[in-house]
Amino acid sequence: MEQKWPQEIWLVRHGQSAGNVARDLAEAAAGHRIDIADRDVDVPLSELGERQSQALGSWFAALPPEQQPTVVLHSPYVRAADTANILMQRLDRSRLVVESDERLREKEFGILDRLTTHGIAHDYPELYEQRQHVGKFYFRPPGGESWCDVILRLRSVVDTLNREFCRERVLIVAHQVTVNCFRYLFERMDEKTILDFDRAGDVPNCSVTSYEFDPSLGKGGHMALRLVNFVAPLEASGTPVTASKDLPAAPKA
């Protein structure tokens, strides 16, 4: 049967952002709100996030040309777009198909945007309790999205990968929830499995989770997991590894 998948897919979370730093400061101070003026879409990389992106870009550039990405898809959010641009600086741009795709955007938090865990419990106690009961997979804050909503839009991205980028080597630069929800789809997980992974730890900034096409898997082949939250390129360059949450904070399901 003819291959319908890309040859390889790399999932990369953006480098550390100014929002990650502001959130950590707010949580440490037991504050209610994250002190950042930008819209979530406009939050930039921190200086460390730029260094992390450069370290990972060097790793991609060191791959043999035939193993480097041929397609780069990224979230339109500034922190993800800037990470993608830094990763591509040492690659041959003339060989790359590059697209910004709004379906790769961060999960939308609605009225809980910029609130810490303490802030959610204080300002919206009923929503806090509802979320504790329903769990993050299905809970949708007013004006926001659940993980299921994110998975729904990513299913159409998978269709695009199969239709337009079969046999290509695709680098996707996005966000923590996006990476986890792609894992849910590619590895055919259920709610418990993906939330167990999420509970075990956050996706590190500029980490790589990768898949390679394996023709022996299932009918017509499937993507096989190769790397999970791979941060060796950062460690090898002496660049600090961070795993801060994006905006806003919320308790584990």
Describe this structure in words.
By secondary structure, the protein is α/β, with parallel strands linked by helices. The chain has one domain: Rossmann fold. The chain is 39% helix and 14% strand. It contains nine helices and six strands, in the order E-H-H-E-H-E-H-H-H-E-H-H-E-E-H. Strands 3-2-4-1-5-6 form a six-stranded mixed sheet. A hairpin with a 7-residue loop joins strand 5 and strand 6 (222-230). It starts with 7 loop residues before the first strand and ends in a 17-residue tail after the last helix. Mean pLDDT is 91; it is low at 247-253.
What is the gyration radius calculated from CA atoms?
18 Å
Secondary-structure-based class equals alpha/beta
The succession of helices and strands, N to C, reads EHHEHEHHHEHHEEH
Strand content: 5-15%
Mean pLDDT: 91
CATH fold name, please?
A: Rossmann fold
Could you give a short account of the major beta sheet? Answer: 6 strands, mixed
CATH-wise, what's the superfamily? Answer: Phosphoglycerate mutase-like
Uncertain segments are 247-253
The tally of helices reads 9
How many E strands? 6
Count of folded domains:
1
How are the strands ordered across the major sheet? 3-2-4-1-5-6
Labels describing this entry:
globular, six-stranded mixed β-sheet, Rossmann fold, alpha/beta, 14% strand, 253 residues
What does the secondary structure layout of this molecule look like, with pairings?
Blueprint: E1 8-13, H1 18-28, H2 47-62, E2 71-74, H3 78-88, E3 97-100, H4 117-123, H5 125-134, H6 147-164, E4 169-174, H7 176-186, H8 191-200, E5 208-214, E6 222-230, H9 232-236
Parallel strand pairs: 1-4, 2-3, 2-4
Antiparallel strand pairs: 1-5, 5-6
Helix pairs in contact: 2-3, 4-5, 6-7, 7-8
